[in-house]
Amino acid sequence: MNKTTEANIFDNEHDYLHNVAVDNVIFGYHDKELKVLLQQPFSVHKWTVTGGYIKKTESIEQAARRVAFDRTGLKNLYFEQFRAFGNPQRVIDSGFSAKHISEISGINVSPDHWVFDYFVSVAFYTLTEFSKVSVKKGQLEADCKWWPVNELPQMMFDHKLIVKEALKALRIHIAHYPIGYELLPEKFTLPEIHALYETILEKSLDDRNFTRKLIANGIVVKLKETKNIGAHRSPYLYKFDLEKYNEGLKDGDVLVF
Amino acid sequence: MNKTTEANIFDNEHDYLHNVAVDNVIFGYHDKELKVLLQQPFSVHKWTVTGGYIKKTESIEQAARRVAFDRTGLKNLYFEQFRAFGNPQRVIDSGFSAKHISEISGINVSPDHWVFDYFVSVAFYTLTEFSKVSVKKGQLEADCKWWPVNELPQMMFDHKLIVKEALKALRIHIAHYPIGYELLPEKFTLPEIHALYETILEKSLDDRNFTRKLIANGIVVKLKETKNIGAHRSPYLYKFDLEKYNEGLKDGDVLVF
Hints:
7 helices; alpha+beta; 257 residues; 8 strands; two-stranded antiparallel sheet; six-stranded mixed sheet; homodimer
């Protein structure tokens, strides 16, 4: 069989950092739905967020982008590190796992291999338009797919907590930084951006107040064009002012709705 | 010589996680001044934030509290993890360091010891009243003291960035969570709490607006007592409603000033 990146870590122990890895909470938005990309190891009924090991030659951010690219094929995802998770309970049953990995990959893995040690996970989240992504599962996974954030399956270790904390961080984040450029069409209506914020925040936002704040900081600008969405209905279109958008990403600002 | 915790790590390699450690940005507030606790290794002209290694038996939070206790003697500090830092450039000159540590501690340390590997730092910040703290320097440090956050000395690696990011996280944090209980007297005046927020945020806050928001969420309550601070000046005293304060710490709320 071909050895993939996943398989190589069992041989190349000196190429990777021990005791610390990255996990990615990949959120996907599409048409009022917020989902998260999870994977399921072979013969295990529980799911995990996607993640991987850190090479000695790369930063933690580079590691997170590399392993996200492996699953989604996307290269320029906006990544935000939100928390690290680490405690001695975060270990898997190495006897069970070593046996399984050996069976699946054909590589003989010892139960005292370093991959079964206590690992601190540095966790990142990202947000993408999930209809754009073609998911690729890893060699050791039975499945990898999108789950609605409010209907998560049974998850391994503290991975449900990791998703919950990522969601909390995302919600605080969008109170200070602009979002939406990768998630909405280039030109969008107010109801479209309003639905995006309401879906992520999981609460309804006063229409007029929302629009006022959105326009006030100049990140969103009204166009002269309208969108024809049916008889007598042609709302104005809006777009992002990219310069202000990128400034906002850099500096942070208070956009609390 | 007595072997302290710091010295023991050179012997007990199997007791600690490799490639990952904790750093603490310990902020101190007192009377309109915001400072940070830094330490200076022997024979090095640069300073670092305080930090340490993680035992295999403890969580990253327990490690952060243990190493903070070693420096400050304080046990119940409110800790907030804000970011991890990790890239291959974060390594020290192990030849120089091994020689120095051997000279200072009397323990023979090899330049290829695991403590000189690439380390991911999981960073926490905390905020305390610095007049309450008696600082204890470590065995390998020439000095450990408070520095004003705006007058930092030369610092090692990316430690200036770590302080800067901690400050940014602290400022976002106080827009969502209450602060002040450990930093102000039990009963305080509005100018006292106003000065606390202005010092941390490093900007002036409109007096009336600040007071209105502070009272509105019920975390701060007005007392019937006044404080006598001179001829014809006796401002009302306020205190925290501890139940609401703790709820706010748990749930987060928008307190943006």
